[in-house]
Amino acid sequence: MNFYDGALSVMKKDESDEQWVEQVLEEYWGGTTMVTRGTSHNLLQYPAWVAKRGDHPSGVLIYRMEQNECEILLLQSFDKYKGIGTQLLSTFLQSVQHEAERIWLITSNDNLDALRFYQKRHFSLTHVNVDAITRARETKASIPLTGYYGIPIKDELQLTYDKQ
Question: What is the rounded distance in angstroms from the CA atom of residue 73 to the CA atom of residue 71?
């Protein structure tokens, strides 16, 4: 499945995208490991969608399926407020809506922009894992202590997609 709108296309990640995805993870996320709900995930092992303008990668969404549940592990877009994250999420949701009974994600308590983004796209806050990120630093020491807007990063916020 592809989405194409002008110069923006969203496609499943292929071998030609691997190096770019790894660079994004290293540069923006402190490595290829993501910790959610106390579990470490090597993000390079999971399927992904990549947004491109022409041949230039502009965003990535990485997810994992387990039985009938789907967790969005990462959504990273560049050129904010240009629709890249929205197209990645929309294409992804269309692709898994019949497989997944539940689609959810974890973000950090400081990520107010992500909360706004996901809530506008039919995700609801369903759980707070208090001090989960504090504990995750034992596994991934590169997680910063302070995040967006000078807010201490401590808690995981779980959001679940409200299927319409």
Answer: 6
Q: How many Cβ atoms are within 10 Å of 145's Cβ, its own excluded?
A: 10
pLDDT digits (tens, 9 = 90+) for 39-63: 888 999 999 999 998 888 889 999 9
Look at phi and psi of residue 31 and say left if phi exceeds 0, alpha if psi is from -120 to 50, else beta: left
Cβ(74)–Cβ(60) below 8 Å = yes
Contact 60, 49 (CB under 8 A): yes
Residue 158's nearest CA partner among 112, 115, 122 is 115
Rounded to two decimals, the pTM is 0.87
* Residues 6 or more apart in contact with residue 164 via CB below 8 angstroms: 122
Output the DSSP codes for 115-130.
HHHHHHTTEEEEEEET
User: Which amino acid makes up residue 50?
Assistant: V
pLDDT for position 164? 62
How do strand 56-66 and strand 69-77 relate by DSSP bridges? antiparallel
Distance, in Å, from the CA atom of 21 to the CA atom of 11, rounded to the nearest integer, reads 13
Mean pLDDT of the chain: 89
Cα–Cα distances in Å, from 145 out to 4, 121, 155?
A: 39, 28, 11
The token duo for 21 is 């995805």
- HSE on the CB side for 69, CA within 13 Å? 6
